[in-house]
Specification:
The chain is α/β, with parallel strands linked by helices.
Length: 688
């Protein structure tokens, strides 16, 4: 049988050689490299083949469909249609040809596609023409074997050889792909483990099939606890379950759903039953004909806090902008009220019952002015100015207004030191700190209680610093604000001075009161701390450094204040607000001064030219029609360089700074100002 088989094979070979001699086989070369096509055609023509050339896939396919072709030699990457697409299209019309691939850009995926199309040979550029001719000869041999009915057995043998070759190639490719897959899985594992976001996969039954380390940290469940659990029952709040079931039923069948491919902000439930805000992004993937889902979950707790803080900050900025916008008009109104009230106070005799009403009116006006300044300072439109102040006086002034913020069910006790304690402070800002603490104390005693405010001197020494972890040695004024309210736990106490931290309900607190208080005390080179226990009340302690050197100066100032307010000089007032101008003029004239009025910048210059020899002092509004106060002063100084000036304005400090007035050392008075204070500053400027 072996000898017979060999003999038959030799007979078949002889027959094929004869067939090749009698038939001129057709070869189609398809490549966009014209020079290469020409070389191949020349070589094949020498071997007796009938060779045709095409320069792209579409042209090659057209020739194939209209002419008989035995062997197709095609490049893979070509214009209009690549080689694999062309061969696939050729196969659809007939299978009676052999193909050879030549390419300079081969890869495993291309090779697999070529094998699927039964490509006989796969040659990489630059190709050997001799090797190509041998491949063509083998293709013709194979083609003749296929076409010969008597060569059926040989075809089967060749097919077997080809299949074995294919199998070896496929085995090698599978091995390479398996290795690549393992590497890819390892990369995914490393990336997933390092990711800050949770990566969770869900199978077609809605059960968790993958759970990375970030998911453990965010939700509190280990991998063992999470795998195999139904996702919505495991992580979604109960209120989401219905919507989840409706969406999942559609996803299971189609891989589509309302949340697929759309980043969403939702709420999930952690192991400790606490809800956590998350950002969720879901993609669908078809595995073995079933739709699975991959979810990327980000914990956005901190982002939500920052967004809330930003919203609060924007609100506060809006308050600052609004206050800055209306402060000029509001301060002018307060100036008029304050001037009228002061003049009334001067004219009403001691003992007259009406005098107390005027005193209360002026106190309320002061309070309104302080409120405006506090809002401007909060919006960073007003700087903090410090001067010697007695702590007891500040506390007494704050206590006067306690009734505005607390109810009758809270008893207020004050225990003030007998010693005078002078500090360098912005009294209004310290009052604001006290009002914030008093307001918090009120909220901590919803059913009433006792509020105690104490002052005393205290020494911060090395032992104090060692115990508390802060401080600078010296003598301080201590202000204690104590309530008998609900108190605080350790966690709340640790965050009490953090910006935007609040234990109050949404809409009932900004979380800024105590952080502002902390900032103000730090600006005064002081310290503030808190002692509290649940159910045992709270005590805030403020430490402000005493300033002995300034105490006598502060007392001196008070004693001499009343003596230096009268005068006989001529003053030019330039003020566009009629009622402010009127009462300022009346106040100055009451104390002996001669006053010349101007309603705008141009009139001020005209009045000065008419009375240049008489005028000794200018009181100029910073912002006026036609010319502002600074422009008026600069013009007057050209003819009278030694002229004295006081600038006044109801605008916030940032507007005044733009005019360069504080930087150049000019005397500046912010509205509203008490007439007595105005008279004192006028006298000081004239005497300077």
């Amino acid at each position: 049988l072996k000898e017979l088989s060999t003999a038959l094979f030799r007979v078949e070979q002889k027959r094929m050689r004869e067939a090749k001699k009698t038939l001129k086989h057709s070869i189609l070369v398809v490549d966009d490299e014209k020079e290469l096509c020409a070389r191949i055609k020349h070589e094949l023509d020498k071997e007796g083949y009938q060779t045709a050339v095409a320069y792209d896939g579409v042209e090659g396919l057209d020739y194939f469909k209209n002419c008989r072709v035995d062997v197709v030699i095609a490049d893979i990457r070509m214009p209009k249609m690549d080689g694999l697409e062309m061969l696939k299209a050729c196969k659809e019309s007939t299978d009676d040809f052999i193909s050879i691939i030549i390419t300079g850009h081969g890869d495993h995926e291309t090779a697999i596609e070529a094998l699927k199309l039964s490509v006989f040979s796969y040659l990489k550029k630059p190709i050997s023409l001799e090797e190509l001719v041998v491949s063509v000869e083998k293709c013709i041999d194979l083609l003749l074997l296929r076409r010969g009915l008597s060569a059926r057995r040989r075809e089967l043998e060749i097919e077997t050889v080809l299949k074995e070759q294919y199998a070896k190639n496929l085995e090698k490719m599978i091995e390479e792909k398996t290795k690549a897959l393992r590497e890819s899985e390892e990369k995914f594992r490393v990336i997933s483990a390092a990711a800050c976001d949770a990566i969770i996969t869900m199978d077609n039954e809605g059960k968790i099939s993958y759970w990375n380390e970030a998911a453990e940290k965010i939700f509190g469940y280990s991998v063992q606890e999470a795998l195999g659990k139904e996702l919505h029952i495991f992580l979604a709040p109960l209120r989401y379950h219905k919507a989840y079931r409706e969406g999942f039923s559609k996803f299971k069948m189609t891989g589509q759903g309302p949340v697929i491919g759309k980043p969403l902000e939702l709420v999930a439930v952690k192991k400790n039953a606490m809800e956590v805000p998350i950002e969720l992004s879901i993609s669908a993937i078809n595995l073995r004909g079933k739709w699975n889902a991959i979810g990327i979950v980000r914990d956005i707790t901190e982002r939500k806090k920052l967004e809330a803080q930003l919203l609060h900050a924007q609100k506060m900025e809006a308050v600052g902008v609004l206050t800055g916008g209306i402060s000029h008009e509001f301060n002018n109104i307060l100036q008029a009220i304050m001037s009228i009230g002061s003049l009334m106070q001067m004219k009403i005799k001691e003992g007259d019952p009406l005098r107390q009403y005027v005193i209360d009116l002026l106190a309320s006006t002061d309070r309104a002015a302080n409120l405006t300044r506090s809002l401007l300072a909060f919006g960073r439109k007003q700087p903090i100015y410090t001067m010697p102040a007695d702590i007891n006086d500040i506390v007494k002034k704050a206590v006067k207004f306690i009734s505005m913020v607390i109810g009758e069910d809270i008893e207020v006790r004050t225990e003030l030191s007998d010693e005078e304690m002078t500090v360098m402070a912005d009294s209004r800002q310290i009052e604001q700190v006290l009002m914030n603490l008093i307001t918090n104390a009120r909220d901590a005693m919803p059913d009433g209680g006792v509020l105690t405010i104490q002052t005393k001197p205290i020494v911060i020494d090395e032992a104090f610093i060692k115990m508390h972890g802060y401080g600078k040695e010296g003598i301080y004024a201590l202000i204690s604000v104590t309530d008998t309210g609900i108190g605080m736990d350790k966690m709340t106490k640790g965050k009490i001075f953090d910006p935007f931290f609040t234990t109050k309900e949404v809409g009932k607190g900004t979380g800024l009161g105590l952080s502002i208080a902390y900032g103000i005390i730090k600006q005064h080179n002081g310290y503030i701390n808190v002692y509290s226990e649940l159910g045992k009340g709270t005590t805030f302690r403020i430490y402000l450094p005493l300033t002995e050197a300034m105490k006598e100066e502060a007392v001196h100032t008070k004693e001499e204040e009343a003596e230096k307010i009268e005068g006989t000089e001529t003053v030019l007032i330039a003020e566009d607000e009629g009622h402010v101008r009127k009462f300022t003029k009346e106040t100055l004239e009451r104390f002996g001064y001669k006053v010349i009025e101007a309603t705008d910048g141009d009139e001020a210059l005209q009045k000065f030219k008419e009375n240049e020899d008489r005028i000794q002092l200018l009181i100029l509004d910073v912002i006026m029609p036609k010319r502002n106060g600074r422009e008026v002063y600069d013009e007057i100084r050209k003819t009278k360089p030694d002229i004295k000036v006081i600038f006044v304005s109801g605008y916030p400090a940032d507007v005044i700074h733009e005019k360069g007035i504080p930087e150049e050392g000019f005397n500046f008075i912010p509205k509203p100002i008490r007439p007595t204070d105005l008279l004192k500053i006028v006298r000081e400027e004239l005497d300077r």
